[in-house]
Amino acid sequence: MPAPITHDGPVRWGVLGAGGIAGSAGADLRDTPDCTVHAVGARDQRRARATADALGAPHAYGSYRDLVSDPDVDVVYIATTHGQHHEHALLAIEAGKHVLVEKAFTLTQRQAREVIAAAGERDVFCMEALWTRLHPLVRLAGDLVAEGAIGDVVSVTADLGWPFPYDPAHRLFDLDAGGSALLDLGVYPATYPLLFLGVPEGTTATGSLSPTGSDATAALQLSYPGGRFAHVACSVEAVMPGTATVVGTRGWLRFGSPLYRPSELVVHSPAADPEPRVHTADLPGSGYGPQFTEVARCLRAGEAQSPLVPHAATLALMGLMDTARAALGTRFAADGG
């Protein structure tokens, strides 16, 4: 098990990457209690310095290796593109650093297993930055379902889509960067059936590919024992509602758009209350704070993984993405063969 962080002062973060997510999520990290951005690392020193200045970090490095070699960095936030997560997570872990890895965690389940195994061998904390699992309304919904508020869950539907102009060099279409509607958007709706129904016993998928071979639209049908099911869809070619609905034998829950950061949770259980109940939760900034709070808590407690975003959940999600990509025909070099 990792040794608990006991030093005085907040948990010291290194941000690996200087792109869009490093700036938006990094701003929330900067403002999260018991956290401070100590350093930013990028391949370009000027970009690293600009991002570090924006996040109030005293140090900026022109290489990722220099960042992970900083002895004062407690944990590294991997904020590069999907195709780089495996390499960069292993780089930080090999340096003895705890890691929070942006979603999608890796390109494949095999890569995910390798990162998690490496973290275990080095006794460091490792978590996927699937911030939706930590949203207060998603956690509330989990509690309500566990309490039987809507009876037994029988189905989940969820989708997320937004059109992006086709550009073969854009990260959504570039296979070398991990271009994939499933890995960029689909991980969010796919998280809902995993949360409320578990790992499916069967998965079918249909959709379309972009000219580069990346998946552009995907629709997944997940089957469970007893006739339970889930329908998940994502697209970088069309606007989708961006909502999720969990149906039970005595009621239903609906997460308002966008489902990755639900605007509201509507709970309808007619036997208990004829009128739906609406729950809201105001999160500061862009809403990433809860994931950084959870990482800091785990590091203070000496935990190897978070019970809210466990390794098993990451592996299940990556396995689902592998199955769907294989059905659609999206292949990365990391798939081998």
Automatic annotation (TrEMBL):
SUPFAM superfamilies: Glyceraldehyde-3-phosphate dehydrogenase-like, C-terminal domain, NAD(P)-binding Rossmann-fold domains. Residues 11-127 form the Gfo/Idh/MocA-like oxidoreductase N-terminal domain. Belongs to the Gfo/Idh/MocA family. Keywords: Oxidoreductase. Signal peptide: none annotated. GO terms for molecular function: nucleotide binding; oxidoreductase activity. This is Uncharacterized protein.
